[in-house]
Each structure stands twice: as C-alpha cells, then as structure tokens.
C-alpha cells in the first residue's frame, strides 16, 4: 500500500494539486486579468459641428439658359405656330415643319384608315390645313376631331362615316381628354340604335 494513499483528509493540498488560482492583477480599468483596455467614448457626448445652411446652389451658366430658350423657341415654331427664331433659315424651317405635319398625318391615317382613304391624295393637305400650328396631342384624338368636323361640314365619305360611328359606339370622347371605353350596356344600346328596323 502506498504510504501517501489515501491522503490524510486533514492535510493541506500541495501547491501542484491546488484547484484555486491567485487572481491576476487588475488593470487600470478595474477588469482583472486582461491587460490594459481602451476607454470607450460616448459618441453622443461629443460636440458635433452644426451643418452649414448657407450653401446656395450655383446658378446655371448663361449659355445653358440661352440654349434652352432657343430650343424652346425652335420647337414652338415647328409645331405650335410660334414665330420663326432669329438666325434660322426660314426655308429650312418651313420644310421641317411640313415634314413633321406629314409624319403626323401618317400616324393619324394608321389609326383612321377609312378616313384617310376617303380623302385619297388630299389627305395630307387636309390634315395639314387643320393641324398646322397646333401642338401634337395624339393621332387617335387628332383623327377623331377631324372626322367630326368633316361630318359636321357634310364632307365625310361613307366609309369614314361608318368608322366614326363605330368609334362613337365603343368609346366616349369629349374632345379634350383621352377617349374612355363605354360600358357594356352603353355599347349594346348604341349598337341597337345603329341597326335599321326590319321591314
């Protein structure tokens, strides 16, 4: 039997077998055993520099303003009946204006094919006479206004008259805003009114 076993219950443990450790020396912040720590600074306590409110945006350069004004004058002269801008060749301006009207007439003819076909080769001239100096507001509405005006003047052909009647049956157009589709009941009633009575 080993003379050291079992140990004497009253004998103190040897330093090698001791399960307790001496505390490490505290650092300057009071936390034991981890060395010096950095002090945490409260960000809210710092004085913040007030934001500057005296900043004024720099104005646009005079050349940029002048260019925008000249472009607006040119657009108004081409499509809105504005005066010819100074320094622009009037012949080239007239040619461009006519080309833009022809393009608008083509777009309206695509939306109103029977209206354009009824006027034949006169369609571009009739369209240009009506919309020269009028800013574009959409081929559907432009064709609709022209068809109504021709119908009121008794100059609308039979095919264009049927086309206009079909549009009036399906859509509501007040002459100022975009057309709106009628309700199903309203369309049914208008179709019934267009059908001639049987004999």
Helix content: 40-55%
Order of strands side by side in the largest beta sheet? 1-2
Would you list the SSEs in sequence order as H and E? HHHHHHEEH
Strand content bin = under 5%
Largest sheet: 2 strands, antiparallel
Radius of gyration: 45 Å
Topology:
Elements lengths: L61 H18 L10 H22 L1 H7 L3 H9 L7 H14 L5 H13 E2 L7 E2 L2 H11 L5
Antiparallel strand pairs: 1-2
Helix pairs in contact: 2-3, 2-4, 2-5, 3-6
Description of the molecule:
Strand 1 and strand 2 form a beta hairpin. The N and C termini lie far apart (137 Å). This protein has a domain of 117 residues. The longest helix is centred in the middle third of the chain and has 22 residues. It has seven helices and two strands; from the N terminus they run ααααααββα. With 199 residues, it is mostly helical. A two-stranded antiparallel ribbon has the order 1-2. Helix 2 crosses helix 5. The mean pLDDT is 79.
For the structure shown, list the relevant keywords.
7 helices, 2 strands, 199 residues, mainly alpha, two-stranded antiparallel ribbon, single chain, 2% strand
């Amino acid at each position: 039997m080993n003379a050291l076993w079992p140990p004497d219950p009253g004998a103190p443990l040897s330093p090698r077998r001791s399960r307790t450790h001496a505390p490490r020396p505290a650092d300057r912040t009071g936390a034991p055993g981890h060395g010096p720590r950095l002090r945490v600074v409260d960000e809210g306590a710092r004085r913040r520099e007030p934001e500057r409110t005296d900043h004024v945006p720099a104005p646009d350069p005079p050349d940029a303003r002048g260019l925008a004004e000249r472009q607006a004058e040119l657009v108004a002269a081409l499509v809105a009946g504005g005066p010819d801008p100074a320094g622009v060749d009037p012949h080239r301006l007239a040619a461009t204006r006519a080309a833009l009207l022809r393009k608008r007439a083509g777009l309206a003819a695509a939306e109103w094919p029977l209206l354009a076909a009824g006027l034949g080769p006169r369609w571009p001239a009739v369209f240009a006479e009506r919309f020269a100096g009028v800013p574009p507001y959409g081929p559907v509405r432009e064709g609709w206004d022209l068809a109504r005006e021709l119908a009121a003047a008794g100059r609308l052909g039979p095919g264009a008259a049927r086309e206009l009647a079909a549009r009036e049956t399906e859509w509501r157009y007040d002459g100022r805003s975009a057309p709106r589709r009628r309700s199903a009941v309203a369309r049914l009633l208008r179709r019934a009114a267009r059908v001639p009575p049987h004999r």
